[in-house]
Design a protein that fits this description.
12% strand; 225 residues; Alpha-Beta Plaits; alpha+beta; elongated; transmembrane helix; DUF4956 domain-containing protein; DUF4956
């Protein structure tokens, strides 16, 4: 047993909703973690080295992990290092026994586990607050999906013209270009871009097929998470 009969975990419960100072401090801690995580995640030099969709998605994951770190810090601050070892054990279990499809899914898995832990530790006010912060971040991040577009079999000697044509169509569709790669020897171009909130892969694909001139058009292959 971690605790003796005389040494019990503190109980805060729903009374925490009435403690405005405590809630404000917790909210400021989460906001600070998100802000500091964003400073590192969106560093200008990092953006210049993005070549793949995974690299484009990494800043979102870093900010989510910053939020996770702040949540863990708040728990440990209130309940001590014993809970820290519990969280460490849960993290190890998820690391070796859970098959998440991506780092984004892994971060959400860790976060929802922590939310359940917070609720179980009788900190409902902090659980609700952390959930609200997480939902806001997910809404912001997932509202503009990142796509990786690969165009193959471009007519020989037309790679430069084809790249310009595809880039112009993406701009007309209000997509934000993150990176562009041209492979003249393979007659292939690659784009990583952020799409508008109301767009879908089907509408983007149809627009590219219709608006890119046939003489510079290639075969489109998509990668999206």
């Amino acid at each position: 047993m971690f605790f003796s009969e005389t040494e019990q975990l503190p109980s805060i419960g729903w009374a925490g909703f009435l403690d405005g100072t405590h809630m404000l401090q917790s909210a400021l801690a989460l906001l600070l973690a998100i802000a500091l995580g964003a400073v590192v995640a969106f560093h200008p030099t990092t953006r210049r080295s993005i070549d793949t969709r995974e690299e484009a998605e990494l800043p979102k994951v870093l900010i989510m992990y910053a939020l996770i770190g702040a949540v863990i810090g708040e728990i440990v601050l209130k309940y001590g290092m014993v809970i820290g070892f519990v969280i460490f054990g849960i993290g190890g279990l998820m690391r070796f026994r859970t098959d998440a499809a991506s780092t984004r899914d892994t971060s959400r898995l860790i976060l929802v586990t922590l939310l359940g832990l917070i609720a179980g530790l009788n900190l409902p006010h902090f659980a609700v607050m952390a959930t609200v912060f997480a939902c806001i971040l997910i809404y912001i991040f997932d509202g503009h999906p990142v796509y990786q577009l690969e165009v193959n079999e471009i007519p020989k000697g037309r790679v430069k013209e084809s790249a310009a044509a595809y880039r112009a169509v993406l701009a007309s569709l209000k997509c934000t270009l993150i990176s562009e790669g041209r492979h003249f020897n393979k007659s292939r171009i690659e784009y990583v871009f952020r799409a508008p909130r109301d767009s879908t892969q089907e509408t983007l694909h149809a627009a590219l097929c219709e608006q890119v001139p046939a003489e510079v058009r290639g075969e489109i292959d998509w990668e999206v998470e």
